[in-house]
Structures are given as structure tokens and as C-alpha cells.
Amino acid sequence: MTKEVTMEEGVPWKKITLEVAERMIAAAQRWASNAGVPCCVTIVDKAGAVVALERMDGCGFPGIATNAAIGKAYTAAQACVSNYLLSKMLDPRYIGEIPGSYYIGLMTQLNCRINLIPGGEPIRDDELNVIGGVGCGGPPDAVGEISDMTVCQVAISSLYE
User: Fold this and answer.
1) Any residues with CB less than 8 A from the CB of 88 and at least 6 apart, and which?
2) Exposed, middle or buried by CB within 10 Å (0-12, 13-18, 19+), for 93?
3) Per-residue pLDDT tens digits for 77-128
4) How many CB atoms lie within 10 A of CB 5?
5) Which end of the chain is more exposed for a tag (fewer CB within 10 A), N or C?
6) Cα separation values, 135 from 1, 4, 6, 9, 52, Å
């Protein structure tokens, strides 16, 4: 039987707790606020269940941003890879001859919960096992200084502070 490790002990965490999720969201919101980009951040556990979700005041299209953040976090946790990498699979060269085959078909799976838009990152423990996912909706879906991917990366980096 493995002992659960907590952040208070100063050693790596083994699962996403509410405390871990709130710490990640606080860091992400601090960065987004300083960048002037209100957003919604969601943290899920390894099963894809929402542990914590917060939407900042002023987040554009709040219903869409909230659902996008949930879907991005869920997808990152289940696929064990960044949504940015998954989005590259939507390249028309990989779609296939049959409509719905290959990666396009993935988007209709699991009640359309799969979200291949960049802005979701898996959360890994000290042994690189995926223990959850973080998703962000609201900022631009892109790679760059201000994007939902950056918000997710800030959330993850808060675990190492």
C-alpha cells in the first residue's frame, strides 16, 4: 500500500486534491489578471472528473469558455498529452478518405467531450504519471506569450514553487 504524499510534507504529490487544484488555479488567475486576459481555468483528476473550476469576472463568452476549459482539461488527462499536439492531428493530410475516420472521429467520442483545441495540458507526478489535467478557456487558442496554453503552463509550474 502506498502512502499518499501531500504538498505540506514538501515532497511530490501523487494525486490532484482540492488544495492542489486551488493552488494551480490561483497561480493561473494571477498571471491572467496581470496579462489582462480574464479566463476560466479547470482542473480535473486522472479520471477526468472536475476537481475545481473558476471563471474570472470579465471572461468573454462565459458559457463557451467554461465548457471549453472543462473539455480541454478532460482531453489532456485522458489522452495524456497536450491538446496542442492533438490539434496538430487535425491536419487535413491525416483526416483520411472516410469522413469521420482518424482524428476527426475522435471529436465525436465520449459524448463530444474530446476537445482538440490548444489550451489543455496533462498534470504529471514526480514519476511522470498523468494524475490530472488543466484546461483554460477565454484567452486566444494559440502558442504565444498570451494564450490559454500559457495559462495552463503557469498553473503547472505553480506546483514546483
Assistant:
1) none
2) exposed
3) 999 999 988 887 776 665 555 555 555 566 666 666 788 888 999 999 988 9
4) 15
5) N
6) 31, 25, 23, 27, 11
Looking at the chain, the whole-number percentage of residues with pLDDT higher than 90 is 55
The pLDDT assigned to 99 comes to 53
Position 52 pLDDT exceeds 80:
yes
Residue 59, classed as helix, strand or coil, is: coil
CA distance 65 to 40: 6
Q: What pLDDT, on the 0 to 100 scale, is given for residue 5?
A: 43
Tell me the C-alpha distance between 125 and 14, whole Å: 6
**Confidence category of residue 2, pLDDT binned at 50, 70, 90:** very low
Q: Which three cell numbers stand for residue 133?
A: 489535467
Walk me through the domains of the chain, giving residue ranges and CATH numbers: 27-160 (3.30.450.150)
The set of cell numbers assigned to 37 is 486576459
- Burial class of residue 47 (count of CB atoms within 10 Å of its CB; 0-12, 13-18, 19+): exposed
Q: How far is CA 43 from CA 31, 46, 78, 79, 102, in A?
A: 16, 10, 13, 15, 28
How far out from the chain centre does Cα 132 lie? Answer: 8
